[in-house]
Amino acid sequence: MISIIITGYKEPKTIGKAIESFQEQKIKDSEIIVLAPDKETLDVAKKYKVKITKDPGKGKPSALNLAFKKAKGDILVLSDGDVYVSDNSVNELLENFNDNTGAVSGHPVSLNDKNTFFGYVSHLLTFMADKIRKKLIKENKFIVCSGYLYAIKKGIVKEIPEDILSDDAYISRFIANKNYKIGYAENALVYVKYPDNLKDWIKQKRRSTGGYEQLKKYFDEKAMRSFSQEASGVFSVFSYPKNIKELYWTKKLVFLRLYLWLLIFYDTYVKKKKFEETWVRIESTK
After folding, report:
1. What's the rounded mean pLDDT across residues 146-154?
2. pTM: predicted TM-score of the whole model, two decimal places
């Protein structure tokens, strides 16, 4: 059995499409579980033939812990209430499982307008993420699953810390440390609206990228994304721009990422921010 788990928060406008994109697929023996703390999202979800769970509103990690207990499937497909997936995406994920596979990542695709700065940034970063995942898979190396769409074998991860900022990175590393491989289904597309302004972009990246630094508290390995790693690969992003405007935007992005790492250092080692201070809603992605 396959359990499709969709977590959301105040997403009544997008949860329907998220559910429909899974229901329209030909999936044998499956259940869809929708978790949200708010009545608005759950009221829309109730219009569909899905299982509804009101989570305690303590964040996505808490909702996932509840879902892990309720799910009946052998494979858990995890996604969000503000994205939607491509046709046959679930079967694409399942085809990449074998006995030694613990998780398989989907492939995020940006819905933003590429003719704007932050739209261009989202396309560049998703392109680079896809390129890096393909390269690492080819080299038989570890990859981090995308939290927008991925699948895991039930029972490997039973619970995650509720203060985790990057739950997808934590789960990926936890599964790899159990000697399971992580696969990549490049045709399992998930369509994502990314931040379209500086304030929201900083908020989101401060949370997600900063979450990698937080992992040092739980794992002996170095963070899977670090300033030194990013700095060493900075020149690779300059293979993406196709014109002068895009080249200028790419240079601007490099300086923005530097500023972001300074903020993350402040959050992590100076202010020592708590989960509830960093986990904030990003309005422009809804």
Report:
1. 96
2. 0.89
